[in-house]
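Anyone? Bumping this.
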Amino acid sequence: MSDPAQIIVEDVSHHYRPAVGREVLALENVSLRVREREFLALLGPSGCGKSTLLYLIGGFLPIGTGKILVDGKAVAGPGPDRGIVFQNFALFPWKTVRKNVLYGLERQALPRHERETRAQAFIDLVGLTGFEESYPSQLSGGMKQRVAIARTLAFDPRMLLMDEPFGALDAQTRSLMQSELLAIWEKTRKTVIFVTHDVHEAVYLAERVAVMTARPGRIKTIVDTRFDKADPEVHRAKAFVDKVDEVWSLVRDEAVKALEKRPP
Amino acid sequence: MAGVTDAGRRLAWGAARLAPIVVLLAAWEMFARSGAVTPFMLPALSAVAGRIYEDAAGGDLFLNISVTLYRALAGFAIAAVGGVVLGAAMARNRAARWFFDPVISVGFPMPKIAFLPVIILWLGLYDVSKITMVVLDAIFPVVTATVAGIASVEKELVWTARNMGAKNRELLWQILLPAALPQILTGLQVALPIALIVVVVTEMQMGGYGLGGAMMQASRFANSPGVFAGIVEIAIIGYALVGAMAWLRRRLLAWHQEAQGAGV
Amino acid sequence: MTVVPAPKAAAPHVLVRYAPLLILALAWEAASRLHLVSSLALPPFTDVVQAWVELLWSGELVSNGLSSLYRAGAGLALAIAVGSALGIFMAISRPVNAMLGPLVELFYPMPKSALIPVTVLWLGFGDGSKILLIFLGCMLPVTIGAYNGARGSDQHLIWSARSMGARGLRMIWDVVVPSALPELLNGVRTALALSFILLVSSELIVARQGLGNLIGYLGANGSYDAMFAVVLTVAFIGFLADRVYQAVVERVLRWRE
């Protein structure tokens, strides 16, 4: 509680300019504060701008109005202090697993031996020992995402930005990956901003859930979702189920609005 | 047991594919000998084969093939390197794209061979003209493929690399070109047969050494077996080059989806 | 073939897009007039235009042009007719495919320009040899396009057509050809470009008439401005043919949707 906020988003608005058609207001006066080592979820219906907000924090999109400060400095572009993980894995298909993980490390001035050791450590951490020389096209979806996570963790960013990382996986794999992510987070304790449209996932993974409105996106409410995640039965606990209901009803109104706004 | 049937199957498959060619060759020989056409119109396969053997023994065949191959491959190599460089410049630089886009777009469907007399006017009757003509024709598919390939690299790959601190030059060489490689190779595979077609035409027009020149010479002297021998020789060269290019593609893209998918 | 997606062509946009060509034309004129390059090697652009008009007026351009276009058109028409029939039959008949497939694969990489001497041997310097050349040379791209297109035909469409009593040729015409159309038309586009290349090549080397022959004649004469005029004309016709073809194809395919 007494930690100063690590990420400060203040009155940020963003216009999305498509190739054809008029520009659209994606985010409107969004303000948010994320504490260090916190696991925060950005939850909302499709089109609410949650990914856009993530990309702005990551420095992949230029900031128009408002400001975003990370560790006290304004965001000016992408950088290794904010590691990103995408939904479609974004692995370099021509590199092996090991080379993928090494790529971020090669950008930093580390001696070779140390790079190799770090890379191997993170490959082991995500449970892919033995697959170092495989190519992404030989891996399943879940495995690819684990490589992506290992790759991002390897260059030791100050925080993780995750854009619906499990969205492309089937339900069982997704479930497993969620528990694994939590386990990894317990060990490494980085700040995480996790974008998702899945209420259950948000409540399970995050300590706080920021619910966003339909487009143009704003932060509607922030809900506290701390539970004893070590308990394997936490999904069934009454407190948990009630919390999911609470968040769902917040999101549902927005989801309906988003549906109505969609062109026929 | 499985090994025997596997190898056996491969053998049978190869034989089945060769069969029509063997049939064609046999039909050629029989038809030519039958008297339905004069030996001038269709020399017997045996006569053509004999002619090829004579050329080979005399050293002419080797000379002509080397000269033609040298011109074609030199032009192809220049077109390949120049095409990728120009394509990369166009993909990354707005001014380059603005300037060259209409040139490429309008020039592609033009029969550039029409410019041969102009090239001869400017550069004379030597190899330089032939190679220049080849470059002029072969560079277009390479440029188009490179631009399309780089443009279609998924933005998440670019963002991931930038996230890890890659600068512009590193981005191009380490990420964009490898990611665009499948499409660039396709462009090269289109350019190679074009190079061969063009070099043969230039040799026919300008005479002298080379398979094209030899065939034109034979035609002038109404040397029918000579003309047919030339066709066979060039067909074999073309087949070998295209096959070599396909082999190269398989090796360079061993990591690609298409390699993992169907197996054989 | 557009390299970058072009924005909706409003008048000013088209100008901006093709402006570089205008710049090149101006640079050409300047370089020649200012004698930066020998005006023999590169006659001023305006001189070339003038020569072009003269050729048009004298009828030489038109008569040679018609001769060339007749040859290319006839050869291409034959190539399309025979090639597509061949490709479609290969796609629907296993035995035909087994017989002809390896042959197509064998002849595809052969440079078609190698056929120039043999067609001249058979049919001399006139129209016949050119038409035969273009027919033989352009057939394969059409065959392959037709084959790939027909192979993609939805099996279910074929079955339901069969169950409704469609047989043989009727079924092919009603079901297979329409679905094969896009790929087939793409193969024809390749054949179109190839036909121009073969036409110009053969006319440059051996011909009695036609635009290629005219270029050679003017060059031998030293009338370089006229030669440039015809060269540009030929290049432009090739470009125009492709663009028109694309527009027609787009219309046809949209209509089918």
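Late reply, but here is one note on the structure posted above: Chain B has a mean pLDDT of 89.
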